[in-house]
C-alpha cells in the first residue's frame, strides 16, 4: 500500500509561485496541498539548499553555479524576480528551514536529491544525515513528524544516502524505461520507482506493481491523463497544476 499522499505539488506549488521557495510552500498550502516535491543541492561549503538548476541564469540571475557559491551568498540571492518582479524579496532557502516549515505545517515532503555533477557522494550523504538529524530533533521536541520520501535520478547519490542513513525511504527516479530498473531498486532497497509519466506504459506499470513497488509519476498536469495513470495502478504523482488538480483529486 502507498503510505504517502497521492497528489503532490511539484517544486512547492508548480507553476503558481517561484519554484523551490518558501513562498511556493505557502502557496501550496493555500491551495490545500499538504504534500510537496522539491529539489536539494549543495552549496560550495556543503550546505543543502533548494535549487533545481546547477547553474545560475534561470531562477536566479547572473553567471555562476550553486556548487561554487557559499551558502551565505546563495541564501541572499533573489529567487523570485524571474517569476514576477513583485517577488524580488524571495530568496533561495536552505533545506533545514524548509524541512522545519513543512514538518511544522504537516506538509509531507518528497525530497529530490539533485547533486551537481560530480557531487553525488557528498550530496547524498549530507541530505541523508541532515534529514536524519532533523527528524530526531523534531521527535525529541515532541513534534509529530511525517517521514519524507527521498528520490534521485543519481543512483550513486541514493546509494550514499542509504549508507549514511539506512532507515530513510528511497525512490529511484527514471526518465525513460531501463530494463534493469528492478535490479536498481533492489540494490537501493528502494520502496518506489518514480518515473516520467510520458514514458510509462500500462504494461510497465503492471510489472512495477506486480513486483511490489510503489509507483509515482512526474509531472502530470492533465486530469484526464491522471485518471488513466491511476487506472494503471499508479500510486501518486506530482503536478505543476495545483489549480487544476486538487489535493483530493484521487
Ligand atoms: O521528482 C520528480 C521531478 O521533479 C523530476 O524532474 O527536473 O522537475 O526535478 P525535475
Ligand atoms: Mg524535482
UniProtKB/TrEMBL annotation:
One of the protein's GO biological processes: lipid metabolic process
A GO molecular-function descriptor: glycerophosphodiester phosphodiesterase activity
Organism domain of life: Bacteria
EC number, as in UniProt: 3.1.4.46
Residues in GP-PDE domain copies: 5-249
Gene that this sequence comes from: ugpQ
Classification via NCBIfam families: PRK09454.1 (NF006989)
Natural source organism: Undibacterium nitidum
Keyword field: Hydrolase
InterPro entries tied to this protein: GP_PDE_dom, PLC-like_Pdiesterase_TIM-brl
Transmembrane segment boundaries: none
Listed name of the protein: Glycerophosphodiester phosphodiesterase
Amino acid at each position: 500500500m502507498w503510505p504517502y499522499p497521492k497528489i503532490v505539488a511539484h517544486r512547492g506549488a508548480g507553476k503558481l509561485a517561484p519554484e523551490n521557495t518558501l513562498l511556493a510552500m505557502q502557496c501550496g498550502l493555500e491551495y490545500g496541498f499538504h504534500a510537496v516535491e522539491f529539489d536539494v543541492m549543495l552549496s560550495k561549503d556543503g550546505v543543502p539548499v533548494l535549487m533545481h538548476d546547477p547553474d545560475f541564469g534561470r531562477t536566479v540571475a547572473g553567471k555562476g553555479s550553486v556548487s561554487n557559491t557559499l551558502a551565505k551568498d546563495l541564501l541572499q540571492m533573489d529567487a523570485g524576480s524571474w517569476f514576477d518582479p513583485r517577488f524580488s524579496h524571495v530568496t533561495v532557502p536552505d533545506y533545514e528551514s524548509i524541512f522545519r516549515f513543512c514538518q511544522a505545517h504537516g506538509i509531507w515532503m518528497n525530497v529530490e536529491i539533485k547533486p551537481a555533477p560530480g557531487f553525488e557522494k557528498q550530496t547524498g550523504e549530507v541530505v541523508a544525515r541532515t534529514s536524519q538529524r532533523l527528524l530526531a530533533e523534531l521527535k525529541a521536541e515532541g513534534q509529530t513528524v511525517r517521514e519524507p520520501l527521498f528520490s534521485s535520478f543519481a543512483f550513486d547519490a541514493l546509494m550514499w544516502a542509504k549508507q549514511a542513513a539506512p532507515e530513510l525511504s528511497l525512490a529511484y527516479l527514471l526518465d525513460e524505461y531501463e530494463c534493469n530498473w528492478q535490479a536498481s531498486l533492489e540494490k537501493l532497497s528502494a520502496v518506489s520507482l518514480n518515473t516520467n509519466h510520458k514514458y510509462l506504459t500500462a504494461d510497465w506499470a503492471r510489472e512495477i506493481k506486480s513486483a511490489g513497488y510503489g509507483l509515482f509519476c512526474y509531472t502530470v498536469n492533465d486530469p484526464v491523463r491522471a485518471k488513466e495513470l491511476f487506472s494503471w495502478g499508479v500510486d501518486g504523482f506530482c503536478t505543476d497544476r495545483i489549480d487544476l488538480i486538487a489535493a483530493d483529486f484521487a
